[in-house]
Specification:
This is DUF3124 domain-containing protein. It comes from Geotalea uraniireducens. The chain is α+β, with helices and mostly antiparallel strands and about 170 residues long. The N terminus is likely disordered. It is about 20% helix and about 50% strand. Strands 1, 5, 6, 7, 9 and 12 form a six-stranded antiparallel beta sheet that branches. The chain has a four-stranded antiparallel beta sheet with strand order 8-4-10-11, with no helix packed on it. Strands 2-3 form a two-stranded antiparallel sheet. The chain folds into two domains: about 35 residues; about 130 residues, TM1070-like (Hypothetical Protein Tm1070, Chain: A, Sandwich), CATH 2.60.290.11. It is built from two helices and twelve strands.
């Protein structure tokens, strides 16, 4: 009986430690959520395919670049969303003229599953600006694919590589 209580006790202790780590991690992200800026250049990794199995077979993925204005009171202007391949060559520019995203508005760029031109190391460079400092938008890419009853999906967050959005 004491043995099972010990196992249960270990389980509870592990659960409590895990919960503490989750709470600590959530608290550490708050500074990033409250970051104020008037524009940025953001690098977003894109995976138009991933490799699986011993033979490294490509598994094609559809990708959706998501740009979400997190400001509830101010607009932001999307200046560019340029798509690059694994070698760093520009494939396409998806923003022909500036696009204004109102408060809490979002937009997307969709890369179909059959388009593997970007390769494993594709990326977007996203540029945006605002008239004054606002909370930074959420810029990320969602990849998803399904084949023969098997599916995969994941999110790739953007990384700020410059300020000002120019």
């Amino acid at each position: 009986m004491s043995r099972s209580a010990g196992i249960g006790g270990n389980y509870v202790a592990c659960w409590m430690i895990g919960l503490a780590l989750v709470v600590a991690a959530a608290g550490s992200g708050r500074a990033a959520e409250l970051r104020q800026t008037a524009g940025e250049t953001v690098y977003v990794p894109v995976y138009s395919n991933v490799y699986s199995g011993d033979r490294a077979l490509p598994f094609n993925l559809a990708a959706t670049l998501s740009i979400r204005n997190t400001s509830s009171g101010e607009s932001i202007t999307l200046l560019g969303a340029d798509y690059y391949d694994s070698a760093g060559r520009l494939l396409r520019r998806y923003v022909a003229k500036p696009v204004v995203l109102g408060p809490l508005a979002s937009t997307k760029v969709f890369i179909p599953e059959k388009d593997s031109s970007g390769g494993f190391g594709a990326s977007f460079i996203v540029r945006w600006q605002a008239a004054k400092k606002v909370s930074a938008p959420v810029i990320e890419c969602v990849m998803i694919g399904a084949r023969s009853g098997q599916g995969i999906s994941f999110v790739s967050p953007g990384q700020v590589i410059g300020s000002g959005g120019r």
